[in-house]
Design brief:
With about 450 residues, the protein is mainly α. It has a single domain, classed as Amino acid/polyamine transporter I (Up-down Bundle), CATH 1.20.1740. It contains 20 helices and no strands. It is globular.
Length: about 450
């Protein structure tokens, strides 16, 4: 097995075409410095509000009311913790998570982890393909199968923005996130939810039904998988290195502080969007006696009639389209990071995007042809559960690396952070094991 020094020569920087490409201001002002680091966290937050979240949040809100808001809150806090570890690994070691796995584990183990990471990316891309195609069908009456195929063309926009500079990519992402946030803010106002129940369910679990109802647990783990995404851990450890901060102890310490502010801010916005989807579903569908609204298409058809506002369904579909298109960016970048980090294999971004898209499009087209929109809706929720099942294979290495003093030096996880991170990792693994037992025993 090669030594770390030999690997230092072998491994080029993560995403070398954009590494250290974003210049930072020399101003000493706190806010001007903070703005310079604003961006990577929002690219990560995109994955926390993609169409996969919509399906799980709609299913949870319509069937169980506000009860699963606590799951969204806990999932978001886990996400903030794990993304903080990911950005710390990238800034301190100047390696992304995939590269660290490659240089630390046997080749067979690295290949095994790479395969699981690719499955996670395909599962995520599946949700994006379906979500974008459904939005195109709802807004422009484009047949679902054609919409699925059209989504592959978004690679052209991505390539254009990447060639202009990474900041343009971040600007587009932040604009689309702002669009989604505003549209769901309007939807919440129109739905007149019960604010007291929302506040209580955000901070307190409402019942023990979560561990006794397999369907509720299935949706809850889907929410976890849709919120804490494994490929985002690989991606975040790479794109924090796009800033040209000083690669010194002081420079890395400052980068950590501002990158954590960026990440936490973006993920709190994602929390609002996720909670808003579930709140709207609970306030409109659950309260109205429609307990089985798990399909995005059904939600679109019912929103305007039940709210009595003609444009409510259109706002919903526009937000869905923005969400789907936004999520394609992170899917592509994550695919590059994973393939280059684990295999040291570099493909052109357009080719990488096409491969990922085709892997997602083929099963989606088959389901769309055989079962229509209802089949694709179930496929979205299944894809999020698959994401959750892959999560442990990224979380445990991440916690181990950031708790290794020989790798992290003075930036190693404090004991309390190390133990808390392992508790989160074990909790995620236990929930997934519980789901598998419930599924295969038919309970």
């Amino acid at each position: 097995m090669p030594s770390v020094r030999e690997l230092d020569r072998e491994l080029t920087p993560s995403l070398p075409d954009i590494c250290s490409s974003v210049r930072l201001t020399r101003s000493r002002g706190f806010w001007r410095r903070a703005v310079g680091f604003l961006g990577p966290g929002f690219l990560i937050a995109v994955g926390y509000m993609d169409p996969g979240n919509w399906a799980t949040d709609l299913a949870g809100g319509s069937r169980y009311g506000y009860s699963l808001l606590f799951v969204i809150m806990i999932s978001n806090l886990m996400a903030i913790l794990l993304q903080s570890l990911a950005l710390k690994l990238g800034i301190v070691t100047e390696r992304d998570l995939a590269q660290c796995c490659r240089e630390s584990y046997k080749r067979s183990t690295a290949i095994f982890l790479w395969i699981f990471a690719e499955i996670a990316i395909v599962a995520c891309d599946l949700a994006e393909v379906i979500g974008s195609a459904i939005a195109l069908q709802l807004l422009f009456h484009i047949p679902l199968v054609i919409g699925v195929v059209l989504t592959s063309a978004d690679v052209l926009l991505l390539l254009l923005l990447q060639n202009r500079g990474f900041r343009y990519l971040e600007a587009l992402v932040i604009t689309l996130i702002a669009t989604i946030t505003v549209l769901f803010g309007i939807e919440i106002v129109l739905s007149h939810p019960e604010w007291g129940l929302i506040a209580r369910n955000l901070v307190l679990p409402s019942s023990s039904q979560l561990v006794t109802d397999p369907q509720m647990l299935y949706i809850a783990i889907g929410i976890l998988g849709a919120t804490v995404m494994p490929h985002n851990l690989y991606l975040h450890s790479a794109i924090v290195q796009t800033r040209d901060y000083k690669r010194t102890r002081e420079g890395k310490r400052e980068a950590l502080r501002f990158a954590n502010i960026d990440s936490a801010t973006a993920l709190m916005i994602a929390l609002f969007v996720n909670a808003a989807i579930l709140v709207v579903a609970a306030a409109v569908f659950h309260r109205g006696g429609h307990f089985e609204v798990a399909e995005i298409e059904d939600a679109y058809k019912l929103l305007s009639p039940m709210l009595g506002v003609a444009g409510a369904s259109t706002l919903f579909a526009v937000a869905l389209l923005a969400s789907g298109q936004n999520s394609t960016i992170t899917g592509t970048l994550a695919g590059q990071v994973v393939m280059e980090g684990f295999l040291n294999l570099r493909l052109k971004p357009w080719l990488r995007r096409l491969v990922t898209r085709l892997l997602a499009i083929i099963p989606t087209v088959i389901i769309a042809v055989l079962y229509g929109a209802r089949g694709t809706g179930k496929l979205i929720i299944l894809s999020q559960v698959v994401l959750s099942l892959q999560l442990s294979f990224a979380v445990f290495p991440l916690v181990a690396f950031t708790s290794d003093r020989s790798r992290m030096g003075e930036f190693v996880n404090a004991h309390w952070l190390k133990y808390l991170s392992y508790v989160v990792a074990v909790l995620i693994a236990a929930l997934n094991l519980w789901l598998l037992v419930q599924t295969f025993t038919g309970r």
